[in-house]
Amino acid sequence: MNIEALAPVGAEITGLAVGPLDDVTALRDLLAEHGVLVLPDQGDVDDERFTAFLRSFGDLAFTTGEAPLAGHPDLNVVSNVGRTEPPRSTFHIDTGYVARPPAYTALRAVEVPEQGGRTLFSNQFRAHDTLPDELRQRVQGRTLCHVVTGLDLGPDDEAAADHPVLRPHPVSGRVALYLDAPKRCAAVSGMGEEEAADTVTALLEHSTRDDNVHRHAWRPGDVVIWDNGAVMHRADHDGVVGHRVMHRGMVATYPGVS
């Protein structure tokens, strides 16, 4: 593998074919270090090989309420096809409202628009390391209640979970600022509603500054995998020209985390 670090988060990996892998230890370490791995020139990869690649990392996860991809029940489609208005996206993590959120998410570019449609990633390690002292002291030792929004869940599905605001990464131990979209941030432990909302706003503004965000411009054949414990992400749907179709899969857990 050849590794080229991206600023301020991520790395591009060449010399690796997406498919079933015997050992993903190096990739897990790279994800824990860089947060996002861009794997270009995977144009011959189909959904079967994409799924097998993800299974190399462990059991897969699926968000209840999403529509599975026909023939591939572990995947779902992210698409703007047939929409009269562009989708909306804010910075978030995937399925943070469960006690053990998915470790990794990956997208396979099926159809890339002629213009626009980038995916943005924020460096949540750097966001933690550069927190102003006052804001750090305000959230030290506190938890954030993540809640589900916009999905129809069953009576036995998890709909809320508390996670540390300053969360040690399960692989590296490095501390990340662990946030979600504002509507999914219901409460901060030990704070009133107004203070909690103001705090979440300040943390998100700090995390998503331009100098802390990488903007991935999709190319045909791209596969991108990221670590939900290290980054937040959002799709930029402004000014998109053409169809944007991605197939998404998620890996349930980190190694050694049951």
TrEMBL record:
<feature type="domain" description="TauD/TfdA-like">
    <location>
        <begin position="3"/>
        <end position="249"/>
    </location>
</feature>
<dbReference type="InterPro" id="IPR042098">
    <property type="entry name" value="TauD-like_sf"/>
</dbReference>
<keyword id="KW-0408">Iron</keyword>
<dbReference type="GO" id="GO:0051213">
    <property type="term" value="F:dioxygenase activity"/>
</dbReference>
<keyword id="KW-0479">Metal-binding</keyword>
<dbReference type="Pfam" id="PF02668">
    <property type="entry name" value="TauD"/>
</dbReference>
<keyword id="KW-0560">Oxidoreductase</keyword>
<dbReference type="InterPro" id="IPR051323">
    <property type="entry name" value="AtsK-like"/>
</dbReference>
<dbReference type="InterPro" id="IPR003819">
    <property type="entry name" value="TauD/TfdA-like"/>
</dbReference>
<comment type="similarity">
    <text>Belongs to the TfdA dioxygenase family.</text>
</comment>
<keyword id="KW-0223">Dioxygenase</keyword>
<protein>
    <submittedName>
        <fullName>TauD/TfdA family dioxygenase</fullName>
    </submittedName>
</protein>
